[in-house]
Hints:
The complex is a heterodimer. Chain A is of the alpha/beta class.
Amino acid sequence: MEIRSNEFKQRAVFAIHDASLQQALGKARGGFVGKRAQQAAELPEFEQLREEAKNTKNHILDNLDHYLERYEAAVTAAGGHVHWARDAEEARKIILDICKRVDAKTVTKGKSMVSEEIGLNEALIEHGMEVVETDLGEYIIQLAHEPPSHIIAPAVHKTKDQVSDLFEAAHGGPRKTEVPDLVNEARMVLRDKYFRADVGITGGNFLVAETGSSIIVTNEGNGDLTQTLAKVHIVTSGIERVVPTLDDATLFLRLLARSATGQETETYTTISTGPRRADDLDGPEEYHVVLVDNGRSKMLGGRFKDMLRCIRCGACMNHCPVYGAVGGHAYGWVYPGPMGSVLTPLIKGLDNAYDLPNACTLNGRCASVCPVKIPLPDLLRELRHMQHQQDITPVMQRRALKVWRYVATRPKLYHALEQVGARFLSAIARNGSIRRLPLASGWTDVRDLPAPAGRTFLELWQGKRGQK
Amino acid sequence: MTESPTRGPRVGLFATCLMNVFRPNVGFSAVKLLEDAGCTVEVPANQTCCGQPGYNSGDYDAARALARQVIETFEHYDYIVGPSGSCMATIRHDYPVLFQDDPVWLPRAQALSEKAWELLSFLTDVLGATASDSHYDGTVTYHDSCSGLRGLGIKGQPRTLLGEVDGLRLKEMEDSEVCCGFGGTFCVKYPEISEKMVEDKVKNILATGADTVVGGDLGCLMNIAGRLKRINAPVKVFHTAEVLAGLADGPGLAGAAKESD
């Protein structure tokens, strides 16, 4: 997927004025936040679990080579194959080669953000394959020819009416308007695809080193049909998603659904280990795992290591007021919201996503709900620091910072300028505020500027106490 | 009384930039509250900014230059107290991070960090002060500023003190913990997003029917007050300290629109 993160500002403004989008976002926000809060409150050990999850992830990341090798050995022992992909291109090639080898015509897909990250669909379609997204949200946006706008609710930006229109156009009507009817219609269309599929591709929420298993969680069961009915099952996953044991996986599973959708658990939690065995009733003939690095190993040793703890629950974006205002598409690439604002510049380059680390008030709500306690605001600030060091920041900002530093480290000068400013603003104010201030239109286009009283506190204080 | 009564702690008041220029009344309110609680308050003249604008813009060197100035100016006080969760969280949390690789300044940054307090939490958590002498006529809703709330754990303290004020009715708004859209330079770099956020905040304020909104950070309060004024909503905006100190007279920040507007 082509990156358009440098269009963030324009796309954000567009999004704010898109009435349907605002309607959809408003509805989603309330649901996710309220349900998560309720789940967290109902589980007394929830905060302890977050701390434990953070520590476990840190341990895994400190020993990632070890667990990945153990995982590979276990997958191989179970009859599966592990493929290592350095970047998106290698990952696409590995998957394409498998699909071509088995002469795949139809490829079904469970939800996988890594497949979005590596631009898999485009590559498969380019080679003549029919690609069918089976997650309802993914299916909707595939019909709309749009990328996901949320990592767990890819069509969260769509209203019910828009879905009705899309389904009517794609399935030929009659137009359905009720949610259960729409779901049924999608189910009937997709059912046929599962049986026709040559290859089923899913993500992997967790990869278990001790057993060589991949675990996916879904609410629709589409992942199960994708991975058991096709002849070949391919798992795409980031290298950081490995966990040592099934026990460890349960720790993260307890946090994932609660943090993501505010459910105690997702409807389906499915563990796959290798291809179909002799006495299995169903399952794929081949089982492949494509482990994607794509910039992750570079993060491992550096100051962004904490980001690799991410379990892709989406809580950060659900609680982000900026995401809530502009939706996911404004972010311009695969991962939106706070986690995306950290990941996108790291994966796609700092100068390809200038705004993402900056379009944040550092309010910290994301970090306060992150199930693995990633200090997202600190990482975003760190990216700003890198932008500053590399002179990617706008010239005006660099100049302003230089002037500010010069003045602020000279208290007498600073106070003199504050006094001038206070008097000037006070003089031009009407009824306690200023409606328009040419050099501060960023402020006054949106709100009045409260007027100062005229003299600064330090001035008044020295006048009062100096006479005592 | 003995000849030399036990003196309260010697507090250096951190006069935040916004307070100094836009709302001196908050500074005088802070001094009154601290002195009433038995502190000796001084306002060192050599202070400017805590450095947060530089830090959050990624200019760590500039932030360090400002931090050194604050440390030198305030380290000889028993406490450094300021009427802002945002500035005080910078001193408390960010200074030690800024100097983590500096063996000379790190201990000094840590020492200051340990005695850096936001005004309201200092009054309650350190001094155990109450607000039983204060009076305010009105229905008040409280906005949780993000840095104070998540950086310093300020949530119950201002509500407890406000609850003790005679005549004051506290009415909670929806999403009081959600950012108002100020975010320092964010609000002028991304005005449209900031507008959407402050619009949501103002809707929640108006839905309470409160005649006054208070909070602990002037950045947020100026944003909220400016927006309320722009849409002619007759809600007064004060810093919590002004209400507690009995200095919340007049129309408040931005001179709230009148009922008849």
